[in-house]
Protein 1
Amino acid sequence: MTTTNWIKLEIPSDTRNVAFARTAVALFASQLDWTLDELEDIKVAVSEAVSNSVIHGYELQDGLVKIEVSYEGPELRVVVEDYGRGIEHVEQAQEIGYTRLPEERMGLGFTFMHEYMDEVLVSSQIDQGTKVVMIKRVQASES
Amino acid sequence: MRFRFELEGQALIAELQGELDLHTSPEFKANLVKLFDTHPHIKHLIMHVKGLSFVDSSGLGVILGRYRELQQRGGRLFFCAAQSSDQAHSGNVGLSEDIGICRFHLRSFETDLRRRLR
């Protein structure tokens, strides 16, 4: 059996699809040997990234969200990409509590991604879109 | 996502079932806001979260938003996650002065809490 595998998903930007996206990614990721808590972490991180595309990338309008998940050995890689409005200040956007919509949002989306994944890389261009790459590695078990 | 609300004295009891995310939290928030607005005497929020299987930042935002409101009203927020009816009381773990986390059996916890909040 090879130690690599991948899936690609394309979903319309729609709040209903956030639950599908995180569940599908977790189901695929469960081919690796995570603890239940780690699988929950992955679900939260994916939920945050896809939610960002839906609320901020497309501002709840129509759009396409692309999700690619792959692993090579113990390293899981999740890429969430949209073609929406983009993020002007990528660094600032990842600060704890930063949000464009302070009335209704906590500004914790990126914080959760950073908290629950080993690496989070964000690239974005105004009116072109945003791409979030998240990496998480299975910890070597002690037994 | 399903939720059920009950008013008991100064406490609003909310029972949640399902996943609280970008799609489901707006309706939950709208219900809470409406209840808080129409019942200014609500001081405490007791959330039964045993059936809650997922929360992300949008769900947390709704909960913390209400928490701020409770603080202004001088009340407390309780998370209640009873595991089973015969589980021994494992105590009321205080997260901070005004957030309580409990693993009490639901009914005995509620009875106790209702008595105290009356």
Protein 2
Amino acid sequence: MDKSLKWRFLLLVVVVAVSILYLIPSFVRVPSWWEGTFPSEKIALGLDLQGGMHLILEVETEKALANSIDRMISDISDLLFNERIPFDKIERVENDKLTLELLNTGFQDKLNKLLQDRFPNLEKLRYDEKEGIAVYTLGLRASDKEYLKQFAVDQGLETIRNRIDEFGVSEPTIQKQGADRILIQLPGIKDDKRALSLIGKTALLEFKIVNDEYDVKRALAGEMPPDSEVLYSKRENRTTGESTSEPYLVKKTTALTGEHLQTARVNFDQFNAAYVTISFDTLGSKIFERITRENVKKRLAIILDNNVYSAPVIREPIAGGRASIEGRFTTEEARDLAIVLRAGSLPAPVKILEKRVVGPSMGQDSIRQGIISCLIAGGTVFVFMGGYYLLSGLIANAALCLNIVIILAALAAFRATLTLPGIAGIVLTIGMAVDANVLIFERIREELRAGKTPRAAVDAGYDRAMSAIIDSNVTTVIAALFLFQFGTGPIKGFAVTLTIGLTASVFTAVVCTRIVYDYFLSKRRIKKLSI
Amino acid sequence: MELFKPTMNIDFIGKIKWALLFSITLMVLSGVSLLVKGGPRYGLDFEGGTLVQVKFSREVDIGAVRDAVSGLDIEDVSVQGFGEKGANEFIIGMKKTSEELEGISDKVKETLQSQFGVDSLEIRRVEMVGPKVGQDLRKKGTLAILFSLIGMLIYIWWRFELRFGVGGVLCLFHDVTITVGFLSFFNKPVDLLIIAALLTIVGYSINDTIVVMDRVRENLKKMSHKSLPEIINVSINQTFSRTILTNMTVLVVLICLYFLGGEVIHDFAFSLLIGGFFGTYSTIYIAGPLVIYWDKLFPAKRRR
């Protein structure tokens, strides 16, 4: 008995010491020698307490498939053209299929072989023949579709991570969620609109030749040349807020994309207006030079996410692979555009599924209210326990204090996040944690009434109350686990504090309080319990 | 100090019929309220929508905010005061959401800023939940509650006996239904936090029931000459002081949360108060009778 008391006391001391060690960094600034030797994690505050932005984006993976089919269509038509295979129409069907009309069925074998060699990820879904025309329906294989979708999400996540890193946010969370969702948490962000446009922009940079042989108005009226399309240049007048949009008739084929981009920088012209200069890698420079050589005197449209930014006339072939994007930017916009271009485009556009922004003052209010309710609730429980169970109540109160210390320390140690519902969880724990002691004390009283000695009554009280304490806490923890698994950020915080609090309460209310009783009963040999 | 006499012997089981009548009435009323209102009123998290919380640094009338927002041509806009009166803080709620980067919350913000001046207001919170996420969350929330009930049933079955498990879980069902009924009656929106509250009620309310059952388990061994209803009644009496004391401390704590915890967790604390209260009641009056009825329907072959 004596020996076990010593060990239990040692355990208590160790737990208290470790807890305080973990708590110190959260409350005082630690000196540099502390870090590295001792834990230096602070209790992380959730977005609802420190302010920030929470986002869930959905990657439109179907669009990634469509993009891939579009690329293949342009590759296949180039190939057929070079191989002199007569074909008529080649177009995308839905997102993951394409149809191809072969004009001369005699070329079938050659076409089949070419497709098999060059486009192994396309499978023949249908084949119809009528009036000498063969119609192929080709589609992506299921495994390739999965791969492309997966790639779109992973690549998108990586790109967004790069953009956020360059933008400079401290401790961002960027995670994949489910198959096609991305969870982003940016603590302390102030300009949510700007951050959002930085993260969510597809940023697909394209260069296309302007078709000046046709009149745009005629094209808009319905006489669209088959190889061209109309894109707009949308601009907003910053002072009046009016937006204008000017149509451009451009060739459908993309001459060059931002894929070959090497850097993007902000520069200022003589009027101090910001613009972005970009430079291409070796391959990109070569392509750029070829395009400019072949299209001298024509206009080259610089297009970002289907919006024409500018369409300067090519005066001479441009070597060296440099270009600039002008668009009446503010310095901030130009900087963000440069970041986005450097980080690369998203392989597929993203949609916002969920957005939550909390301002910093809101969080401070919540913390203040949380602490106040903690103190008042704790105080009331203290007074009640002390009044009802006398000295034993004080022991329970001490256990309760220790419990709160352990919860906070565990939050820091596990790098869990404290949220507003999490604070509510702590408050609730204050109410629930005394339950174990109430159970024990009521039992001890019962045993005393039955005529047992204090020593025997305490032993019986703890022993008999144990099964009820364990069972009732386990069931609550079961519910908390389901809650954790189900919940989003703030709710998870609640589940975490509740679980830690209940687990800790078994230790503090059962193990720790008993040390006190055992000490007084065996060492001091007290004859009467104050309960 | 003692609030309850150790010799107390109240005939709880004798009032089975009244207790059941009361409970069934409440549950039916909850059902009626839900039926009349077409299911629970879902909050932003489950219904989807947009919410903008704005605080003005000067005195602003709610009507002025309404007028400003109604000029935006958005359907289903509601403006509510937030916090105490005179806090000049409002919540602007909209059913609409936007998946575009330029959200409608930005529009609301810009309109308010142009109407009241950029410096006189602060956007404290913006929440936008798409309908898809809302549906997902609703499904996940319902499943979480169902699975936790099943989890309880299995645990109690394993630790005690099936009849206790069934009694306990039916009790929980009773507590949760009545809480949801109250929420519906008072027109409180069900959101993520409320689901958290319901799950907490599930975890917490069974707590009490288990303490009673633990005593029944113990007394079944000790008093083999007594009948099950008698044993249950004795057990409820023996644990009565603990049931009331613990629930009183929790109740006090919840009242603190309700009044001091701030507007955000107001409804959360409200649900816990209701659930906690009925949890205590059902522990005393409902759990026992249910075990007795189950025992009559499916008599236990042997008593441990």
